[in-house]
Amino acid sequence: MNSPKTVLLALGSNLGDRRGYLQFALEQIHREIGWVREVSSIYETPAWGFDGNSFLNACARIETRLDAQQTLKALQAIEKALGRETNHTGAYQNRVIDLDLLVFETEIIEVENLQIPHPGIPDRKFVLLPLQDISAKELHPVLKKTYRDLLTATSDNSEISRISEELKVPGNHYTFPSCNYIAVEGNIGAGKTSFSTMVSEDFNAKLILERFKDNPFLPKFYEDKDRYAFSLEMSFLADRYQQLSDDLAQYDLFKDFIISDYDVFKSLIFARITLHEDEYSLYHKLFHLMYKELVKPELYIYLYQNTDRLLQNIKKRGRDYEQNIQPEYLIEINRSYLNFIKSQSNMKVQIIDISDLDFVANRQDYLKLLAEIDTAVN
Hints:
The protein is an alpha/beta fold. It is about 40% helix and about 20% strand. The mean pLDDT is about 90.
């Protein structure tokens, strides 16, 4: 899973409802590519390089998990969907929408179909003016000059005017970050860590990830469950209790937005499955002594995936000690989670079936998942 990268885009239109096309393009960028973080004012400019209608131009800062080629391909698909005709001559022409990839982080790319940073930036006032709105003090990755300085130095003396109409930044309606503490749970391979990480990056949340990789009993447990079950569950309980106690103590629970890829109650759920009755009885007592001391999440999200999808995900992520997990074990874990959820009366719980979603690879699936959570919070 890629971390978000900052991208600068130029948008232009000189046919039909010019502002409408720019706004619709932004909406599609939000749906298909990534978060639109900032949009410039709109500038009316004469056609550049040919005789044609005046353009409305703007620039936008976005964050995307796509790479540069994927971003370019998505932008071209949006242009096509909006009715832009393919130009095989290479000459400039009127167009309902023009989406240019200007800068992709600090990457320098020179291939047949893509040059980053866009070579026209220093010589195009209709790009530099809106860039100054959103990135005035940022440095051009190659020229090492700010966009404000490039605007001052450009030889382009085109008459450009700012219009009063504005473009709206799409996707700023989510309210669930108003929750101070969200716990995301799910079966083995459900995607809870990926989802929690994405939310933390996109909404500036404090992230708490379970430190299961450091547990020396986990590989041994999958080899000999009876022998290592109690040791495993006790070590998990101790680690989870200490981690949540330490991490939550670092944050202001009234101001910070915190998301965790587990809730400590999973310790009791797994212990009920793996331990013998006498072991579980002792474990249950120890668990509740610790549990009453911990801060409880305001929202508990359970990401449900069917068993076939779980097995596919487990195989795909390739952890050797997980490859022999049996379907029956996953079914029992799911049943135990659902029984726990049914018993909770003092906790806001949301179960979301993501069996048909791929929120890591498909942004629209990710946005659908966020919308479901947002609805539950409200």
